[in-house]
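Memo to structure team: turn this sequence into structure tokens by end of day. - J.P.
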Amino acid sequence: QVQLAESGGGLVQAGGSLRLSCVASVSLHSIHDMGWYRQAPGKERELVASVTSGDSGNYADSVKGRFTISRDVAKDTVFLQMNSLNPEDTGVYYCHAGIIYWSGRRDYWGQGTQVTVSS
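Reply from structure team:
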């Protein structure tokens, strides 16, 4: 069982920044892909950003140029740096990890961290 622990959410004014962290209970070397999803009230969960060991990150169009996803393999941690936040970024942010086993792919989720951007 893989556990993901998020931190770094909070309340911030529009135009501000936050950095989310997600610590995995296993080495990032054993994880195929990691990412951040968010869910706003009344909306479906959506992908914000994802990264694998072979790429520099993929982003939703709404956050390109403002958010940056990064990995610290030594700390088994993935970060999401969020700049120029606006109220539409408000939601619960979930860390996700995908692992490929011999038996198939399994997806793991963190508990989520609340991000609230005030106007």
